[in-house]
Amino acid sequence: MTDFAAAESRFAPLPGLATMGRDFTYLVLGLPLGIVTFTVAVTGFSLGAGLAITLLGIPVLVATLLACRWIARFERARARLVLDAPIPSRERTLEGGALERARALAADRGAWGGAAWSLLLLPVGIAGFTVAITLWTTALGFLTSPAWYWAMPDDDETIPLLDSTSLGYSVLRVLIGLALLPTTAVACRALAAGTGRLARSRLS
User: Rounded to two decimals, what is the model's pTM?
Assistant: First the structure.
């Protein structure tokens, strides 16, 4: 019994509906958020570096680092949804006057971690968005195909499994959709958890 229980514990149960919803939302939002964070970081640091020869570059760089701190806070809260555990912050406390705060911000690991994650989130978000959308649309498309395949245009060169509206192929598509649902849920759970752990490694 002990060996059986140990073997059984290695297989995680299928995610519930709430978990699947959180995983899907987390992965899909990675793309638009990645575009925003990448744009903020690249624009801010490029503009600040370009203006570094003048005094205008300093407040731009400070504002960019401050924005990256806010991004890091938001991403820690977002990752908590798929990790079910808080991510500790490594932000420095900003105290004193404007110059002291700027110096503390320039040496803040939390701000620079947020800057790194702002750049990394775009490729990670593209991958997560693509996988989640592709897997779920494929699984649900097969599952619901009898409800809408009758409206597909006729084509002389077809693949019966994908295009036939016969009862046999319709049932087969539904069975494939049913088989893909747990696979999709587990794959998105693993990808969302992995992305959350990557965020934790960059932001804590």
Answer: 0.81
